[in-house]
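Batch job 17 of 40 flagged for manual review because the log was empty.
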Amino acid sequence: MSEPDPERPVGHDADILFLGRAVTMDDERPRADAVAVRDGRIIGVGSRADTDQWRGPHTRVVELDGRCLLPGFVEAHGHAIAEARMFGTDLVDIRPMTVATPEEVVGTIRKTLAARGDEGATFIGWDPLGHGPDLPDPTRDWLDELAPDVPLVILTQSAHLGFFNTTAAKRAGISRTTPDPPGARFGRDARGVPTGTAYEAAAIRRLFPDTPNPRAQFAAALAREVARLNQVGVTTISEMACLPDWRRALLDPKRDFSRLSVRLRLYTPVEETPPRGVLPGEGDDLIREIGVKIWVDGSPWVGNIAV
């Protein structure tokens, strides 16, 4: 390989040049030996003989040394924003991969409530399948026993179902006269009194009072989620239930998501009617709205899935 020409325009130079085995996903040329990248984008794919056109005095050359360079993974159905919001807050993770046994789950709930005092606590990951059959029945009475004076909310692993105590219901203003949100419902007894269960996202969102979400915090939470995804090679992600306030923040022309290192594709859930005039394709290559998520089924965890 020849030395780079110092007279070449810098604009043609790659920032990084990968040399070694690369998978292209191109049927006409499924393999390559060199991949050139500038400003975070691939500008050239070819053989080692082609590299002079991309190699400049400041190009960083990375020899793969037996490793294989793969295209980024596309995560086609997920909830990247929801996960960023949930795991970037004070939500407590009790999923089976984090807290393994029913005894540990109950212990974690008790310890967290004791530590947080008057603010109460919210947990996610309640899973009778993953934790085992000895997980207690999360009735409203049981939750009130655990937290008689502070709000307590527990979300299932799937987040399609939430359990809440009496104090959480009072905080949210949920009572016998509270109507069920579109596409969701509250569990009720024969008299119509809420029993401490909230089915589907629209009902679960009612459990939490409105709290400020500064744009900087939103961007920081998303950046943390993106970094986690980058570690496993994901370069395109989706949010299959993009709520109106998330959409406004993400598609705001003044947004600052400079640390976003994946493409993000947004879908508005059917129960959240998009504003009039909103069309698929709004946004740019980095963040773009795709369409509306329509679903007529449910979750096996909640028991509302058709079989």
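Reviewer: the log was empty due to a logging misconfiguration, but the result itself is present. Residues 215-230 form the longest helix (16 residues). Unflagging and moving on to job 18.
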